[in-house]
Every structure is written in structure tokens, then in C-alpha cells.
């Protein structure tokens, strides 16, 4: 008898989140050099710029979204 | 009178011929072969390549797609995907998840976020991560997102260990 849904869906995790997590787990268990190449897929960063008078200010690299509002 | 009859008879024949003419299809592969498209977001592994068959690790069961397979869409679970090439060579990939779509005419699209060769997986790291994930799952609150994420890690590491031939408890 198949269950109509999955444990992750029941916990509030979407398919994209699930498959991203599974991919990260896969990448964490690779050997070098495949590991560094694969981990590059996961890295991301943000650029922050402040708008004033309809003009976009200079962009600055930010490592976390939490720091952006400050 | 006869000319009118002849013209009326010719009409269905003409439409049948028009229907028989291929609309917009690529040349069909040689008998016994099927087209494979294997794509990752970051890389195209195979683009419209003729292969003999593909063994797909479907979430509800593993299945093999050969030429003239019925169209099928399946979610893939973490597991081994095997491609049987035209020249008899067998190529295996470990996929983390994704989808496999087989169209009319057996052209198959495999899309997944990550696919690696078995040689690139580190067995010691798999065991270590598996134990760590099990501990995390045991200590997390039941039904929470942390517990679900830990379970995902447990399942993926277990599949990797099994693919490497290790017994994972």
C-alpha cells in the first residue's frame, strides 16, 4: 500500500528543497577533485545596493541576507 | 461525371498522404535504439545520443527504457542510473533525484540536479555523514523540518553506501 505523500512533504519541505538537500548530501561525500568542482555549484552570494532619489547606489558584496537590512 | 467521381475519390487519398507525411520530427534512430538527453542544470551530459537502453531508478521502482517504450514520466530517487550504449558499453551514474520523461518514440529526457560517477564517491565520507545524520535525526523534534532534513541526509547517504556495495544499517 503506497503512502499518498512523503515524509518531507508532511514536514513542510517542498520538492525543490528536498532535491537540493539530497544533492548537497551527495556533493559532501565526493572525493577531490570532483568535490570542489561540485561544491562550486552550491556557493552563492548577494550584492547589496541602496537606492536614493530613484538612483541605485554602488553594489557591495554581502555574505548573508541577515546583514542586508542593517 | 466520371471526372467528378475520380476527383472525389482522390480527395481522401490526398489527405491520407498529407497525414502520413511527418510533421516536425527528427529522423528516427536506427531500429532497437532510442535517443537520450541527459541534462544537469550546470552541464549537458548527453544531447540526443542514440543508446540501447537506460535503467532509471524511479521513486516507485527501477525500470529499463528501451526503444518503443510506452511514454512514461517518473520521479527518480537517489540511486544508480545505467546507460547501455550502442557499442555495448555500460555507463553508470549515481543521481541525487530528478525526473525521467520518456516520450512517444522512446526519446528520453533525464534531468537531475547532480549526477556523479561511482568512482568519485568517497565511502569513508558516506559512512561518516550517515552516522552524523542518524544522530541528528534521532535528536531532532519529530515532524520538524530539521528532522525531515536529517532523514533526507540519512536516505541519500544510505543510497550512496548501497551503490558502493557497503551494508548500511
UniProtKB/TrEMBL annotation, chain A:
Alphabetized CDD domains for the sequence: F1-ATPase_epsilon
Gene Ontology MF terms: proton-transporting ATP synthase activity, rotational mechanism
UniProt cross-references to InterPro entries, sorted A to Z: ATP_synth_F1_esu_mt (IPR006721), ATP_synth_F1_esu_sf_mt (IPR036742)
Example GO biological process: proton motive force-driven mitochondrial ATP synthesis
A GO cellular-component term linked to this record: mitochondrial inner membrane
Similarity annotation: Belongs to the eukaryotic ATPase epsilon family.
This protein's name: ATP synthase subunit epsilon, mitochondrial
Species whose genome carries this gene: Skeletonema marinoi
Lineage, opening ranks: Eukaryota, Sar, Stramenopiles, Ochrophyta, Bacillariophyta
From TrEMBL, chain B:
Keyword Thylakoid: yes
Domain ATP synthase F1 complex delta/epsilon subunit N-terminal: 34-99
GO molecular function, one term: proton-transporting ATP synthase activity, rotational mechanism
Assigned keywords, A-Z: Hydrogen ion transport, Ion transport, Membrane, Mitochondrion, Mitochondrion inner membrane, Thylakoid, Transit peptide, Transport
Annotated InterPro entries: ATP_synth_F1_dsu/esu, ATP_synth_F1_dsu/esu_N, ATPsynth_dsu/esu_N
Keyword Transit peptide: yes
Coiled-coil segments on the chain, per record: none
GO terms for cellular component: mitochondrial inner membrane; proton-transporting ATP synthase complex
Cross-referenced SUPFAM superfamilies: Epsilon subunit of F1F0-ATP synthase N-terminal domain
Location, primary (coarse class): mitochondrion
Compartments (UniProt record): Mitochondrion inner membrane
Family in the record: Belongs to the ATPase epsilon chain family.
Protein name stated in the entry: ATP synthase subunit delta
Provenance organism: Skeletonema marinoi
Amino acid at each position: 500500500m503506497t503512502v499518498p505523500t512523503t515524509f518531507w512533504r508532511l514536514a513542510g519541505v517542498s520538492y525543490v528543497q528536498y532535491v537540493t538537500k539530497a544533492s548537497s548530501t551527495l556533493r559532501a561525500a565526493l572525493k577531490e577533485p570532483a568535490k570542489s568542482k561540485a561544491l562550486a555549484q552550491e556557493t552563492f552570494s548577494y550584492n547589496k545596493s541602496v537606492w536614493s532619489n530613484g538612483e541605485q547606489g554602488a553594489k557591495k558584496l554581502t555574505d548573508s541576507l541577515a546583514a542586508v537590512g542593517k | 461525371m466520371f471526372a467528378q467521381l475520380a476527383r472525389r475519390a482522390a480527395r481522401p487519398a490526398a489527405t491520407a498522404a498529407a497525414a502520413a507525411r511527418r510533421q516536425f520530427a527528427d529522423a528516427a534512430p536506427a531500429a532497437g535504439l532510442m535517443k537520450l538527453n541527459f541534462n544537469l542544470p550546470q552541464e549537458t551530459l548527453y544531447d540526443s545520443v542514440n543508446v540501447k537502453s537506460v535503467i532509471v531508478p524511479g521513486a516507485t521502482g527501477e525500470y529499463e527504457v528501451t526503444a518503443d517504450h510506452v511514454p512514461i514520466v517518473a520521479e527518480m530517487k537517489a540511486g544508480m542510473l545505467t546507460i547501455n550504449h550502442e557499442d555495448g558499453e555500460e555507463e553508470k551514474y549515481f543521481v541525487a533525484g530528478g525526473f525521467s520523461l520518456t516520450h512517444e518514440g522512446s526519446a528520453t529526457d533525464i534531468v537531475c540536479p547532480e549526477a556523479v560517477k561511482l568512482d568519485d564517491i568517497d565511502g569513508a565520507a558516506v559512512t561518516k555523514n550517515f552516522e552524523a545524520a542518524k544522530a541528528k535525526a534521532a535528536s531532532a523534534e519529530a515532524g520538524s523540518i530539521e528532522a525531515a532534513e536529517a532523514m533526507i541526509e540519512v536516505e541519500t547517504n544510505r543510497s550512496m553506501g548501497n551503490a558502493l556495495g557497503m551494508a548500511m544499517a
